[in-house]
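[Automated response] Your request has been received and processed.

Submitted sequence:
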Amino acid sequence: MGVALGAGLAVSIAGIGGGIGMGVAGGKAFEAIARQPEVGGDVRTLLFITLAFIETLTIYGLLIAFMLVGKI
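Generated structure:
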């Protein structure tokens, strides 16, 4: 039972953290583009790279959950 709880916590904390991080990064990117529209392409490129790294960390949480469930 403890392993299943750990797996659930790994996925939920990774998902919540990733969602908050993506929201903050997206909001700041929109704010930067609104202030200086001419740098929109550069900000968008950096935003996509940042979102990819955040999503990778979320997938690591899912991987840890799969590893924990595999021990049951």
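Summary generated for your ticket: The first helix runs from residue 2 to 35. The CA atoms of residues 23 and 51 lie 10 Å apart.
If you did not submit this request, please reply to this message.
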